[in-house]
Amino acid sequence: MPAPRPRGISDILPKIQNVSTTSNFLVKFALPSGTTSGGGLFNSGLRGHLRRKGVNDRFIADDVGLLCSDAVLPGSALASINTAGDYQGLIEKFAHTRNFTQVNFDFYVDTGYRSLKFLEHWMEYISGGSDEDASKDDYHFRMRYPAEYKSNDTRVVKFERDHNKFLEYRFIGLFPISINSVRVSYQGSQLLKATATFSYDRYVCGESSSLARMLGKLFNNQENSGVDVTYGGDNATYRANTNNLNAALRNTPIINSDRASLNRNIQNSFSTTGYSNLAGMFIGEGRRA
Asked: In this structure, are 158 and 277 located in the same domain?
């Protein structure tokens, strides 16, 4: 490596100024759906429990994420083990487990206390499997199955002011494990905030929707990555799929009441390229892989 040479300010300054800020982010919660048992699909499960407490689906999907004043981009660590004897006088270290650290989210409490109810009754649902009256002296806790309360689609999106560049984290198996005590005081009124600690099984860095998969941008894949379309695709796949989609739309009027015809045109265009995984891409369908 050669010795460093002096560089001008005009060469260094653009690199220093092109840094990200902490205040542009978005949190989107997505809770598991209910089951057909227990009073029907709408009133069952975690979301049905929250509805009965005054926390509706629209608040969960949109408002509670906006009330999240402080979030965390998750981190992880590798647990390792030392081995000796493979090479004389040398101790080697090998990774055996990836550990994911817990995250803390801070929420502004609205005047309807729905953000606090969202956290409180989520934890109440996890430990309220006994379905008994909580005010009784013989009330006891019984934990529910993880599939009933863990969220597999909660996301934290960090973006920039121009909204063109962003980084997405998707949590798998997320649920709250603690809510910090909230202090109230007569002295100096301040905004009321609640802090919750969440645990999760793992996270996925990068877009993971079916649209990102089709465009070849799955898991932060970039152009010329050489990855097969099944695992995210590359730039050539992105251009081919985009061209096919545009060709299908050019043959269909913008004002089209025949939704089935539009979907059929899109599917036929992609089927000629041998690509058949179009889940979530048809008009009027909100599915996401």
From this structure: no
The pLDDT profile of the chain, 289 residues, written as one tens digit per residue, is 777 888 788 887 877 778 888 999 999 999 987 654 444 555 678 999 999 999 999 999 999 999 999 999 999 999 999 999 888 889 999 999 999 999 999 999 999 999 999 999 999 999 886 667 778 887 888 899 999 999 999 999 999 888 888 899 999 999 999 999 999 999 889 999 999 999 999 999 988 877 777 777 787 787 544 445 454 455 555 566 666 666 655 655 554 445 566 566 656 655 554 444 444 444 444 444 4
Domain boundary among 206, 238, 255: 206
Domain holding 109, by residue range, is 21-76+96-206
What is the C-alpha to C-alpha distance for residues 279 and 285, in angstroms, rounded to an integer? 9
Q: Which of 158, 180, 206 is the last residue of a domain?
A: 206
What CATH number does the domain containing 44 carry? 2.30.110
How much is the pTM? 0.70
Helix, strand, or coil here: 68?
A: strand
Angstrom distance (rounded) from CA 211 to CA 190:
43
